[in-house]
Write a structure and sequence with these properties.
Elements: E1 45-47, E2 50-52, E3 56-58, H1 73-83, E4 89-96, E5 108-109, H2 116-128, E6 132-138, H3 149-152, E7 178-179, E8 193-194, H4 197-217, E9 221-226, H5 231-236, H6 251-268, E10 274-279, H7 300-313, E11 317-321, H8 339-348, E12 353-357, H9 363-371, E13 377-380, H10 382-386, H11 390-398, H12 413-417
Helix pairs in contact: 1-2, 2-4, 4-6, 6-7, 7-8
Bound molecules: flavin mononucleotide.
The site of flavin mononucleotide (FMN) has 20 residues, from strand 4 and helix 10.
């Protein structure tokens, strides 16, 4: 008997096909005249051979819920929920390439083959909903082996641990923590050892091995984590890197290790989009460069040099975040407070795709950033956690009719009538 409820092709299992894909603006302007001119947020974007149906990307979000680095059904439901509600792409949380690169003992990992299958199940489901999915590969550097936020400070706020460090007998790996130099993030964080060349090579090889696993899983893109005070950012910033060898001191030296890994990652992941998330500033007090011409902290000027080198290596998109490497950082928070960094990078490299992130909530304001060419895509984290249907409500706010999931269509009559 023919199944009139057509199956999504190319995936394992039966899932009704959504046509067009969920979160796609309808093209039939006779029926949907308001879609004649689409806001940039709902225009597709093609990078390499991958077409993203809209510009709404789920930002990487640690869930502290993995089982020895393996994704669980929590991740299937959490990430699957974004796929059924119209986001253009989903970024799997920071995923460690070696066990001691995890922030907490329950962080995601991709250092062994048994971690492939649960991620493959998630990717299959997300693809069945017509949504793209990538993964953020990471190493926590000097901030690894720490407590999940709700363990450090419980939700009721009645308890705060004395230290962020997870001890060995609590499942931690604080004795194995390393960074460029023996400089802790804070007194209540692990005390890192300075990495040897052998350890750097091991981490570099682990990134490449994880990329091979990403191919087996079928991810659409990879984002390398070079932000938020984790290993690559530790090397980049003069606040965390005091090395006297070829990997510390001058800007060129501080860029050397991250660029070395990025170059090999690009070679290994040649066919599909490669993104890098950076912190564009440390938000430390004082200038980026002092009067004597010494770099005092990481900032936008060095970020521009770093991004220029990444563009030469063939990185497809830079995701411009900030902070996380200086415990006394002073951030001026506000809607789109990091858009300025994406904008500066876009000005310097107009042909490079830029993602902006950080306190982005209002669709009209977000659309203005995209329209003004300050970024090409937006990454959203907390707004999507509060409201996974954000793409649908954003479409309504911008006056566009987009496809809801077949199963949810009856919840969006206003969308269908617009
Ligand atoms: C629960 C949670 C987990 C996060 N985990 C990650 C992560 O794994 N990798 C990362 O680069 N940023 C992470 N972030 C930062 C977000 O990706 C995002 O950059 C930040 O929250 C600002 O965006 P927002 O204002 O839309 O939340 C996390 C944020 C939250 C709230």
């Amino acid at each position: 008997m023919p199944n009139l409820n057509t199956a999504a092709p190319g995936v394992d299992g039966y899932f009704p096909l959504n046509e067009p894909e969920i979160g796609t603006a309808y093209r039939n302007t006779d029926v949907f005249p308001s879609n004649e001119t689409l806001p940039v947020l709902f225009q597709p974007l093609t990078i390499k051979n991958v077409t993203f149906k809209n510009r709404i990307f789920v930002s990487a979000m640690c869930q502290y819920s993995s089982d020895n680095g393996h994704a669980t059904d929590w991740h299937l439901v959490h990430l699957g929920g974004f796929a059924t509600r119209g986001s253009g792409a989903i970024t799997v949380e920071a995923t460690a390439v070696v066990p001691e690169g995890r922030l907490s003992a329950q962080d995601a990992g991709l250092w062994e083959d048994s971690q492939i299958a649960p991620l493959k199940r998630i990717v299959n489901f997300v693809h069945s909903q017509g949504t793209k999915i990538g993964i953020q590969l990471a190493h926590g550097g000097r901030k690894a082996s720490t407590l999940p936020p709700w363990v450090y400070a419980n939700a009721a706020g009645t308890y705060k641990a004395d230290t962020y460090v997870i001890q060995e007998d609590e499942g931690g790996f604080a004795d194995k923590i390393y960074g460029p130099s023996e400089i802790s993030f804070a007194d209540n964080y692990p005390h890192p050892k300075a990495m040897t060349e052998v350890e750097m090579q091991r981490v570099e090889d682990a990134f490449i091995a994880a990329i091979e696993r990403c191919k087996a899983i079928g991810f659409d893109f990879i984002e390398l984590h070079a932000a938020h005070g984790y290993l690559f950012h530790n090397f980049l910033s003069p606040l965390s890197n005091a090395r006297a060898d070829g990997y510390g001191g001058s800007l060129a030296n501080r860029l050397r290790f991250p660029l070395r890994v990025i170059e090999r990652a690009r070679e290994a992941w040649a066919e599909k989009p490669l993104f890098v998330r950076i912190s564009a500033t440390d938000w430390a007090e004082g200038p980026e460069m002092d009067d004597s011409g010494n770099w005092r902290q990481w900032g936008i000027e060095q970020s521009k040099v770093f991004v220029g080198e990444m563009e030469k290596l063939g990185v497809d998109l830079v995701d411009a975040s900030s902070g996380g490497n200086w415990v006394k950082q002073r951030i001026s928070l506000g809607h789109g407070y990091q858009v300025q960094f994406g904008e500066a990078l876009k000005k310097a490299y107009p042909n490079l795709a830029i993602g902006t992130v950080g306190l982005l909530v209002d669709p009209v304001q977000i659309e203005s950033y995209l329209k003004d060419g300050k970024a090409d895509i937006v990454f959203l984290a907390r707004a999507l956690m509060r409201d996974p249907h954000w793409p649908m409500t954003a479409a309504q706010a911008l006056g566009v009719a987009v496809k809801p999931a077949n199963q949810y269509e009856r919840a969006w009559p206003a969308m269908l009538a617009s």
